Amino acid sequence: MSKLSGKVAIVTGASKGIGAGIARALAAEGAAVVVNYASSQAGADAVVSAIVGAGGNAVAVRGDVSRGDEARGLVDAAVSAFGRLDILVNNSGVYEFAPIEEVTEEHFHRQFNVNVLGTLLVTQAAVGHIGAGGSIINIGSVVSRITPPNSVVYNGTKGAVDAVTGTLARELGPRQIRVNAINPGLVETEGTRSANVVGSEMEQAIIAQTPLGRVGRVGDIGSIAVFLASDDAGWVTGETLIASGGLR
């Protein structure tokens, strides 16, 4: 039997990149998946089509996770479509790099609203439906450890996700809901390609500091999410799992 048969998962920000990879990985192990998107319906529909084409079950649901009403609507849509909720992957995230002299209020709020407030709002909406044995997985970043320059706000959001993960693990543990984080290093995605990171001197510098000698692939993160969502990780909570090929 597949590891996640009978389970229902929401993956936020799943129209592309790491989120899409996680959605496909969860579905491949038997979970019914809600593929959330904020703007790219075509991308989300493509992920759903790939899952259904492989014999899985998925629906696309629009929702801006940084808005309370839309976060609640996303969770309600999942329960309406599949009757329950067992797994939440808080993957939605945005990034924008700037030196401290160029940080603005808009720069700050855009990133904190999606990366931190969005994580809190969707979790708040979900915990009323996730029962004992449920799993919440937050997608952080290795930047909270290596703190590279010119990314102080983004790094701050991911440090906050680390703190949120530990706090919620303690708060929800008595309800037998596990909360963990995956903190990837640089992963090759549509986003990192379009930002010209892949193939750049920055990528080569990161590879040079990475013991396993390459950047990540979305499948590297998807398999870890399957583990944390499954009963194999039934005794794991409050952990921040760095998935960076040894970069830290």
Task: Summarize this structure as a short list of keywords or feature phrases.
about 250 residues; alpha/beta; Rossmann fold; seven-stranded parallel β-sheet; about 45% helix; globular
Structure description:
The chain has 248 residues and is of the alpha/beta class. The chain has one domain: NAD(P)-binding Rossmann-like Domain (Rossmann fold, 3-Layer(aba) Sandwich), CATH 3.40.50. It is built from nine helices and seven strands. The protein has a seven-stranded parallel sheet with strand order 3-2-1-4-5-6-7, sandwiched between helices. Helix 4 (105-126) links the parallel strand 4 and strand 5 (130-139). The chain is globular, with a radius of gyration of 17 Å. The model has no long low-confidence stretch (mean pLDDT 96). Pfam families: adh_short_C2. It comes from Gluconacetobacter liquefaciens (Acetobacter liquefaciens). GO terms for molecular function: glucose 1-dehydrogenase [NAD(P)+] activity.
* CATH fold title: Rossmann fold
Q: Sketch the topology as an H/E string, one letter per element.
A: EHEHEHEHEHHEHHHE
General form: globular
E-strand count? 7
Given helix and strand content, the structural type is: alpha/beta
Which residue ranges are poorly predicted, with pLDDT under 50 across at least 5 consecutive positions? none
Q: What is the mean predicted local confidence, pLDDT? A: 96
| Major beta sheet, strand line-up | 3-2-1-4-5-6-7
Can you say what the CATH homologous superfamily is?
A: NAD(P)-binding Rossmann-like Domain
**Assigned CATH architecture:** 3-Layer(aba) Sandwich
Strand content: 15-25%
Distance from N terminus to C terminus (CA atoms, Å) equals 36 Å
The largest pleated sheet is described as:
7 strands, parallel
Query: What is the CA-atom radius of gyration, in angstroms?
Result: 17 Å
The CATH class turns out to be Alpha Beta
Task: Report the helical percentage.
Answer: 40-55%
Q: How many domains make up the coordinates?
A: 1
| Count of separate DSSP helical elements | 9
